[in-house]
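The data layer described in this paper is built around a simple, fixed record for each protein. Such a record has a labelled line for the sequence and another for the backbone structure tokens. For reference, a complete record is included directly beneath this paragraph.
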Amino acid sequence: MITIKTAEDFAKMAAAGAVVAEVLATVREAAAVGVSMRELDTIGADIIRAANMAPSFLGYHGYPATICTSPNEVIVHGIPSDRQIAEGDIISVDAGAIHEGWHADAAITFAVGDVLPRVAELVSATEEALRAGIAQVQAGARLGDIGAAVAAVADRVGLGVVREYIGHGIGNEMHEEPQVPNYGVAGKGMKLKEGMAICIEPMFNLGGPETRTLDDGWTVVTADGEWSAHFEHTIAVTADGPLVLTAQTVSETAGDLS
């Protein structure tokens, strides 16, 4: 676990977060019927390269792409391929960037065209859960406060909460302590301290929470084939509460993540 101790380091992490936000916004705009996942990956790579930054994912334990693209029943870690987007798909896109040794990481899920009401609810509830978790990020709060707030949204609408993949600390490494589960007991767990940075990333399924990994060693899908959604932000713990470093503008907080 690392804490951000200087304004200079904070600025580096915020700069990485701004580029991640640009990647996600641009990929979402480009995603259309007939566009391939590989094309989306190229867009992300071009944006990160143009910013003179490095992708967090490319080469990470051998991962072969710049972003993760996870359609429909894929929960996380989908490798971009020649698979083309179809009408009614939902796509989760996860991206990370490194600026002078500091990481930022975020994910969104969006629909392409019209989807069934229950699928739309899946996406909106997962994003709502991210907001609920971020709202708990205060110096002195506990990790269980975040997990309990996230899980409460899933419980309310009857969605499965993925337990095998969770949020994490972030800083000079993409994945650092502490682990940040999407479930927990309010008032329990590590206390948050000013200067910490964490990633909150709820993953909800239309069906059960069970997962399986495909033969490529990366792609994680729902065990029952039901669809899944994933949202994530990098958040700094400040004296004034949560600061979302991967929002489209860093001044945005838990009340406005657009």
About this structure: The chain has one domain: 7-244. The longest strand covers residues 90-99.
